[in-house]
Automatic annotation (TrEMBL):
<dbReference type="InterPro" id="IPR010730">
    <property type="entry name" value="HET"/>
</dbReference>
<protein>
    <submittedName>
        <fullName>HET-domain-containing protein</fullName>
    </submittedName>
</protein>
<dbReference type="Pfam" id="PF06985">
    <property type="entry name" value="HET"/>
</dbReference>
<dbReference type="InterPro" id="IPR052895">
    <property type="entry name" value="HetReg/Transcr_Mod"/>
</dbReference>
<feature type="domain" description="Heterokaryon incompatibility">
    <location>
        <begin position="91"/>
        <end position="273"/>
    </location>
</feature>
Length: 587
């Protein structure tokens, strides 16, 4: 029999997706059929279904998204030749990296050909025998990737799709070294190989770990016996149970470097796929391992946090499981992220990789309440998406929040036709205190400024007075004397431009060098205000991106509602709202 990867079907009829009912929470689910086709191809069946009703209520924050069995409503697939009588059932989601777009194999879906990338093909081939009775939600198969309207619809409800799944399988490929490592851990801790997947899938709780030192496949007890009794967020650190890493502290990095350094963890969509899962199960070749006990094993042996993609996820996962054991915590709050904002999550997971830049944002929406207010749309220009995300925190917008979102959508190309008009259009504005320089030290923050600025006429704006997490200075070099500048009103809308004369320089926090920001004030409008030494500054998007191109050295929660810290002045202080970053009229 020809191998599936090399099989060729003459004159094939290629698979096309039948439309989904976008007025409902409709999805497609796929099942791997047993046996290969007559031409040696992997065979799959694709069906339509409606997500469980509890997930249709967007305003219900208190539902328990981890308990009970949800019921899927199956719909007849309109392009199938026959209808299959199916009982209601649950499904699993597949989480994986798409891989090289040039490496593709053919499979059969509902009897027709479809090309899939090598990574997915490897999973379908490896999982065919063990999982042929399981329905999966797999993005590459279940979303018509060529239909932007459908993609918007499916991505908008991605959180519900992963929340309602019975489990999420994390496919890390066919890595013999990693499979051998996980196999050794499975033998020591009593977890599963792929052939025992049913036992893992049917384990009521799914979060039991090596602290029980039991073979889960033989378990018949209730969930409570398997839940860690300790209130410690790292439940394996002192319970006296067998720990296969107990004699390997200091060597775990080497032992699991294939796992912790896997490219999978740097993928943008992984964050919500793992953290929303009822249970997350790593699959490597023919070996499976429950992620939660593996995470607790790792954190027990490596207690110090290192800022990498793997540890950012598992630390939240461990605390998420701990919070679920605490009384008076609703399921909606159990992740500990519900009250975070989109900007905070973007900063936390700022190094995530994705083929489409805006997916860094869309992949986090389901993790926080704020995210439900942002509509997924792959057609809107990125500048408009920047504005939409910042509008979520309109009352607390500041330079650091703009910088985080701009970094997520970067690198920017302002020569693109989609950005025509942005080069001069005012985007956001704020009032800032200005001072002249008598030395190379800022009057407001007492930090150094470029010495060259002291030899020029102009005024300095300290960015830290407008946003506590933004360090640096703007120097407006102007040929007028400061007294003349203060007595004149500079209209930023003159001739529908942002040209005010003079040159604007910026000093970023990582060095003391001066960088040219904009020529002749283009992209930054400056005008006097009713308050002495306070100016109104209006920034275009390109100017903001250039000024805030560096990442922010602040904590995730430090990005909440930065307030303007007005310096002490003898002539009165503007209202606090005037120091807040605001959208310009018409933005």
């Amino acid at each position: 029999m020809a191998t599936p990867g090399n099989a060729v079907c003459p004159d094939p009829a290629y698979f096309t997706h039948a439309p989904l009912d976008q007025d409902k929470t409709a999805v497609r689910l796929v099942r791997i059929l047993p046996g290969l086709s007559t031409t040696g191809l992997i065979r799959c069946e694709l069906r339509h279904a409606i997500l469980p009703s509890p997930f249709n209520a967007d305003d219900n924050d208190d539902y328990d998204d981890r308990e009970g069995e949800e019921t899927l409503v199956w719909e007849q697939q309109v392009h199938e030749d026959h209808d299959v009588d199916m009982d209601t059932r649950t499904y699993c989601c597949l989480s994986y990296t798409w891989g090289d777009p040039l490496q593709e194999h053919e499979i059969e879906v509902n009897g027709k050909l479809l090309k899939v990338r090598k990574s997915l093909w490897n999973f379908l081939f490896a999982a065919g025998k063990a999982f042929h009775h399981v329905y999966f939600w797999i993005d590459a198969l279940c979303i018509d990737q060529n239909n932007t309207t459908e993609r918007n619809h499916q991505v908008q409800q991605m959180g519900d799709i992963y929340r309602s799944a019975k489990s999420v399988l994390i496919w890390l490929g066919n890595d013999l070294e990693l499979e051998s490592t996980l196999c050794s851990l499975s033998i020591e801790t009593g977890t599963y190989g792929m052939t025992a997947y049913d036992a893992l899938l049917n384990d009521v709780d799914g979060f039991a770990g090596p602290s029980t030192s039991r073979i889960y496949a033989h378990a018949t007890d209730t969930d409570d016996e398997y839940l860690p009794a300790t209130a410690d967020p790292y439940p394996l650190s002192g319970d006296g149970q067998f720990n296969p890493f107990s004699d390997a502290t200091g060597k775990v990095d080497k032992l699991l470097e294939k796992l912790t350094g896997h490219e999978y963890w740097s993928r943008a969509w992984v964050t919500q796929e793992v953290l929303l899962a009822k249970r997350a199960i790593i699959v490597v070749g023919q070996q499976t391992y429950n992620l939660y006990p593996l995470a607790t094993l790792f954190r027990t042996a490596v207690p110090h946090f290192r800022d990498n993609a793997f540890e950012r996820i598992i630390d939240i996962l461990i605390r998420q499981m701990w919070r679920r054991l605490q009384p008076n915590i609703s399921a909606a709050d159990a992740s500990g992220l519900a009250h975070w904002g989109v900007v905070n999550l973007l900063h936390r997971f700022r190094d995530k990789q994705c083929a489409i830049r805006r997916d860094r944002i869309y992949s986090l929406l389901a993790l926080c309440r704020e995210g439900r207010n942002l509509k997924v749309d792959y057609d809107v220009p990125e500048a408009q998406l920047l504005s939409q995300v910042l509008a979520l925190r309109r009352s607390s917008m500041c330079f650091c929040s703009v910088g985080v979102v701009a970094h997520a959508l970067g690198p920017w190309d302002f020569t693109d036709n989609a950005h025509v008009g942005l080069l001069v259009a005012p985007f956001v504005e704020t009032h800032m205190y200005a001072c002249t320089l008598s030395s190379a030290v800022c009057y407001s923050c007492s930090n150094w400024v470029p010495l060259s600025w002291t030899r020029k006429k102009g005024v300095v704006f300290c960015l830290e007075t407008a946003c506590a997490d933004t360090q640096g200075h703007i120097f407006w070099e102007h040929h007028q004397e400061p007294e003349a500048m203060a007595s004149s009103t500079l209209d930023p809308h003159q001739q529908n431009s942002m040209h005010n004369g003079g040159t604007v320089h910026v000093q970023v926090r990582d060095n003391n060098k001066s960088h040219h920001l904009c020529d002749q004030g283009a992209g930054l409008a400056i005008q006097t205000s009713e308050w002495t030494n306070v100016y109104r500054l209006q920034f275009s998007i390109p100017t903001l991106v250039a000024m805030l191109r560096k990442e922010f050295a602040t904590s995730d929660r430090g990005l909440n509602a930065c307030v303007c810290m007005w310096p002490k002045m003898n002539d009165g202080v503007p209202p606090a709202g005037e120091g807040r970053l605001r959208f310009c009229t018409g933005t």
